[in-house]
Structure formats: structure tokens, C-alpha cells
Specification:
The chain is mostly helical. It has one domain. Helices cover about 65% and strands about 0% of the residues. Helix 2 packs antiparallel against helix 3 and helix 4 runs antiparallel to helix 5. The longest helix is centred in the first third of the chain and has 26 residues. It starts with a helix and ends in a 14-residue tail after the last helix.
């Protein structure tokens, strides 16, 4: 096969498919997604202000916002199921903390290698354990690029916020996603 043909075939993949945009969802689906996300993130925020006010090592991390999109807005997705939600965050936090503890003592090296190593290793571990949850990549990244408070938390970061935060979102998802007759959560626990 010629180089030109190989390149053409490769770049043709960039066009995507002809399937079009995702289908619209009903107004009720939008409302229930909104309610779940609001209550879930509000609960985590309230507990964060009660327990961790004035510190950067708290319960509320950015990756929980992305988890809220999945568990309230795409509750049937395999990536939103409880095993993935909690397992993905916890395992990714372990990887991120491990990468920081391994490389954080070498300034320059840590900033260059730890972020990529943490995210790539978290993805690999989530694949191997069938807990793939995209926000987990952000949880691993936060562990290595976060503040000194986050670095000082060490393995506590795995428990709070990476374990407790998703568990709180899961509790709200179980309640809110099962209120309307048209929704069900989870599809599977394990």
C-alpha cells in the first residue's frame, strides 16, 4: 500500500461518521438531570464548607462536576454505574497520589512527567478493573497538579474527596434518578 493511500485512509477517519447529532431528550429528562446535579453538588458543597472551610484539601474537586454529568445526565451509560463512579475515582486517586509520592521529590521531573503518568496509568488501571469513569482521569491529575494541601493529604485524598465525594453523588443519584417512572439507576451494580 502506498504512503499516500495510507495517509488518505488515516485522515479520512477524522471526518467521523454520518450519524449526526445525538437525539434530543425530553424536558422532563432535562429537569431531572438538573435536579440531581443541583442536589448532588449542593450536598457535596455544603459538607465541604462545614468540614473543610479555609483549606484547599476538601471534599469538592472539579472532577465531581463531570461525574454529575454522567450520573444525572447519562445515568444509563456504563461509565455512570456505581462500580465505575466510585471505583474509577478511588483507583485514579490512588494512582495520582502514588505518582506524586514517587516523582514529587524531584522538581522539574514531577511537573513534566507526573501529570501524564498519572492520567495514563489511571486509564490503564480503570480499563483493567472495568471501572472506566472519565472524571477519574481528572481525579488523578488533581492529585499531582494540586496545591500543597492536596499533596500533604497523601492517601487521605483517596478517601476524601475521591471516595466520599462520589459516594455522596451516588446516594443522591439513587434517590433522584428513581423518582420518575421513566428513569432507573443503576443499570448494574457490578
Amino acid at each position: 500500500m502506498s504512503l499516500r493511500r495510507s495517509c488518505s485512509r488515516y485522515f479520512s477517519k477524522w471526518r467521523g461518521t454520518t450519524r449526526g447529532s445525538p437525539p434530543r431528550v425530553s424536558s422532563a429528562e432535562v429537569l431531572w438531570s438538573w435536579v440531581g446535579a443541583f442536589v448532588g453538588i449542593a450536598l457535596v458543597t455544603w459538607l465541604n464548607t462545614r468540614w473543610f472551610s479555609g483549606t484547599d484539601a476538601g471534599l469538592l474537586i472539579g472532577s465531581l462536576g463531570a461525574s454529575a454529568v454522567l450520573v444525572y445526565g447519562a445515568a444509563r451509560s456504563p461509565l455512570a454505574q456505581p462500580r465505575n463512579l466510585v471505583g474509577g475515582h478511588v483507583l485514579s486517586a490512588l494512582v495520582g497520589v502514588g505518582c506524586w509520592q514517587l516523582l514529587g521529590h524531584w522538581p522539574g521531573v514531577a511537573e513534566l512527567l507526573a501529570p501524564g503518568l498519572a492520567v495514563a496509568s489511571a486509564i490503564a488501571l480503570m480499563h483493567l478493573t472495568r471501572t472506566l469513569h472519565p472524571p477519574g482521569g481528572a481525579t488523578a491529575l488533581i492529585a499531582v497538579i494540586g496545591s500543597e494541601d492536596i499533596h500533604a493529604a497523601g492517601l487521605w485524598y483517596v478517601l476524601i474527596p475521591a471516595g466520599l465525594g462520589p459516594t455522596l453523588l451516588l446516594g443522591v443519584a439513587l434517590v433522584v434518578n428513581n423518582l420518575p417512572a421513566t428513569r432507573r439507576y443503576p443499570e448494574t451494580w457490578w
